[in-house]
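Researcher: Structure prediction, please.
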Amino acid sequence: MSLLIPGTNSIKDTGYDVANSLRFESGDSAYLSKTFTSTADSQKKFTASVWVKRSKLGAVDSHQDVFSAFRSSDGFQIDIVRFQNTDQLQFFSFTDDGGSAGTCQLTTNRLFRDVSAWYNIVVQADTSQSTASDRVKIYVNGVEETSFASSSYPPQNSTFVPLMIQSGTSHQIGAVGNSNHLSAYLAEVVYLDNQYLDHTSFGEFDEDSNVWKPKDVSDLTFGANGFYLDFEDSSNLGNDVSGNNHDFTSNNLAATDQTTDTCTNNFATLNPLDNAQAVTFSLAEGNLELNDNGSADNDMGLRATMGVLSGKWYYEQKQHETSGTVGLAGSDTRLVFDFENQTSAFHRLVGSNGSGSSIVYWSNGTFVNSSALQGWAAGDIIGVALDMDNGKLFFSINGVFKGFDNNTADPVNGTNANFTDIPTDGTGGFAMPYIGKRGSGSPQASINFGNPSFSISSGNTDGEGFGNFEYAPPTGFHAWCSKNLAEYG
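Model: Predicted structure follows.
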């Protein structure tokens, strides 16, 4: 199971900070597109860089496309940077126009299945290079990919007709020809026309953690048809800030798809790799929305991609209906369980009785239907405040914290917690946000770890200025993100 824990990929001070990413969902057929009207400075040389955090793995389609360029006139021509349905990374270029363009295919042996991590992918191309393997290079997080399942390099001085941005070529980010859509977060999308730059132009290794982190690319030379998409303008998600004004058109993307989950501050999401334990749960909206697809997942659930051993933490869960559970599970917890009889697992959960009239709660084998405490209704937002320093867990409904006795609770003062027995010694592993299903209910909910997939009417941050919440996190409680993990986790 992919998991981001304190001390790994968590940097408090990243130097250059990336403000925004854009969330692409294959189920929405979301992508950016542009057809250029002028020919590039070069058809033999380019550099492309993008930061990617994957959401869906495997066979979403035959492949998921990150960059693509396609033209059917004058013969079939296509260039693509994509994830195969095997989760291998591939650069593919092909033309059948009978001209000087050369075919190239590089498919990594390595699989890219970490949904908790950001990858920086850099593709360098220069067909004038005398050594074939120098004509196209792929770097991931500052390291050159040299182990390929298949590889072929273009002939010397051949051309990349589409990706070199020929007039009339359709360029898409997140798809190709409005198909093979991507499910991922993208940040810092950069294309340099007639530039063959080293990967160190886009990132560097942090001197303390040795984690690859981005550099400011605004001063690079982009070339006539180069572009730089930073996704900072929610009203124009395809805005090109390179100075060339090569804006892309947004297709099936909304302002809520602009997020603060970036390669310099990575937020938690739900983990699709937990689906081995919950075979019919489906995830959408960048792994922030859970939907139920049947009965095989009764009494099962999914955990988030981040776990903690210390600190104080806050997130919200918006219910789209009344059933389902919300709470906490350990990284060592077995998630296929019987609520009434399972006694060995680390779980602290609350849930609806299915009608929304009352709350049920369950903790390591103890199952109680609390008719004294009003349940949630569809549209309600449940707040979860975890105090790992004192072993306490608090729940709120629409901003109001209450104990199971229906009296007011106060996470800041630590009074009337819903649970007071959270292991603080690491028993059961890292404490992780959890969403699940009790019995035959049909949970549907959206999780907000500070990077919501739904509209927020108020907009509250934690004390560090991180996150975007409907209700203010209790003082001293933090959003589930890598900058906070580095400081408090």
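Model: Confidence is low (pLDDT under 50) at residues 97-101, 336-341.
Researcher: Thanks, that helps.
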